[in-house]
Amino acid sequence: MAEQAVAGSVAKGRSPAARAEAASTGQAGRVHPAHEARKAVLARAMRQNGVGARLQKTTTNLFRDRQEAPAKRLDVRSMNNVLAIDTERGLIDTEGMTPYDGLVDASLPHGLMPTVVPELRSITIGGALAGIGIESSSFRYGLVHETIESFDVLLADGEVVTCRADNEHSDLFFGFPNTFGTLGYALRTIVKGHPSKRYVKIEHRPVDDASAFGEALASACASDTFDFVEGEVFGPGRHYLSTGRFVDEAPYVSDYTFKQIYYRSIPNRLEDYLTARDFIWRWDTDWFWCSKATGAQNPLLRRLVFGPKRLNSRVYMRLLQLSSRYSLLERPYRLLGYRSESVIQDVPIPVEKLSVFLEWFHKEIGIAPVWCCPVRAYDPQHRYPLFPLEPGQLYVNVGFWDVLRRREDRPRAYYNRLIEAKVKELGGLKSLYSDAFYERAEFDRIYDRAAYDRLKARYDPNGRLKDIYDKCILGA
Questions:
Q1: Could you tell me the end-to-end alpha-carbon distance of the chain, in angstroms, rounded to an integer?
Q2: With bands split at pLDDT 50, 70 and 90, how would you rate the model's confidence at 336?
Q3: Minimal CA–CA distance to 475: which of 13, 35, 62?
Q4: Which H/E stretch holds residue 210?
Q5: Distance between CA atoms of residues 159 and 156, nearest Å
Q6: How far is CA 250 from CA 203, 269, 272, in A?
């Protein structure tokens, strides 16, 4: 459509750095004529072609199989500009398709960074708001959607509404997270920031016992000493508590952007220093540890094929999509009689149950390493019905991402279903960015179907956008 072509053309040739340079200090929330023009184009396109539309964008971090079917595309690629850095109020005013590396590049020069920066630079602010975004500052600030002061949503009928905790669209403000574009699309967000310094000092502490590991995470989160808290599990009895804090000076600076691999340093260094920017993207260079599936951890391929410019989540995702389309990795295993199941999950578990989950996980699933990121609700008075964290409860988000290959003949999604059942048993939750297999009644109980239906009736009464169960579970 013509509007899509116009909307998308602005973004061509624009790097995150160029977008950052375009941002200036100023008041968050003021009128931006160029943004208003882009918004009007998308609103017209949505009114004309919004039924069943899918977003056309340059990046995705969803790991869900979906049914391939012809679909109209809403081109939102132009909505990737940082509009203002409000240093006085500590706010970042940005469009919804801006990737986090654009936000970081725009805000760090002003001594400011988003309060929660998801671990992959290709994640967009709108995607983290509509899904679930987390990082090692989440023990202090909560999930990404708890760091948003206000946001504008493009609804299915082309109307754009501004959502805040205290206005007439407060129901959508609290109900939008974890809906994955089934209620609308975030076009503009006002993101809370916090002061940053030039360097981050990291400390890694080994912990042998799983119960002691959970206690160590809880103790670190209760301290005022740290700006960042996370943990890594390399196998049974091999736990590491990793803490970080801003510092003004560093005796040295490590570099994990090319030859050295960050996660391999954890068992070998009790102390480390990174620039603030390199700390923020410490996991992106090797997709945590998942770059091994692309060959990027082979020293020869790393130097001659990838190089520093191709070691990032955007490249890995494109390679993964190409491999999935043509079964490049799985075909040889099938010929050898292996059956494969992708297990890509992030599951917040109450910290008191972490050791139980890890011990079960090592026995039944056996994936390693595992990422452990503490998180608690930032404001206990705020309730987000589609991803309900208990107020005051410290959770540990356990992230594990791999393919299990076994010769045994198992039912479809055998390991994923085991995990879903165990997470429910322990009072945890599961993010819906990857494959999920809940039966409809169980899904409705976990993710508050009644609240979702009320939002759907108000903001998409004609069902122009997909239903959340159909999209996230059935892969429609």
A1: 23
A2: confident
A3: 62
A4: helix 210-222
A5: 7
A6: 13, 16, 9
Residue 203 burial (CB count, 10 A): 15
For the chain, percent of residues with pLDDT exceeding 90: 80
Q: What is the DSSP letter of 441?
A: H
| DSSP assignments along 135-188, one per residue | -TTHHHH-SGGGGEEEEEEE-TTS-EEEEETTSTTHHHHHH-TT-TTSS-EEEE
Per-residue pLDDT tens digits for 263-284: 999 999 999 999 999 999 999 9
**β-pairing, 73-75 with 54-56?**
parallel
Task: Specify the pTM.
Answer: 0.91
Torsion-angle region of 345 (φ positive above 0: left; ψ -120 to 50: alpha; else: beta): beta
Please report which confidence band the pLDDT of residue 324 belongs to, taking 50, 70 and 90 as the band edges: confident
Maximum CA pair distance of the chain? 62
d(CA 62, CA 180): 10
Both structure tokens of 195: 């002061």
In the DSSP assignment, the letter for residue 302 is I
> What single-letter amino acid sits at 413?
A
| Cα–Cα dist 391/374, whole Å | 14
Q: What are the tens digits of pLDDT across the range 451-476?
A: 999 999 999 999 999 999 999 998 76
The contacts found for 300-305 with CB under 8 angstroms, 24 or more apart, are 302/258, 302/259, 303/259
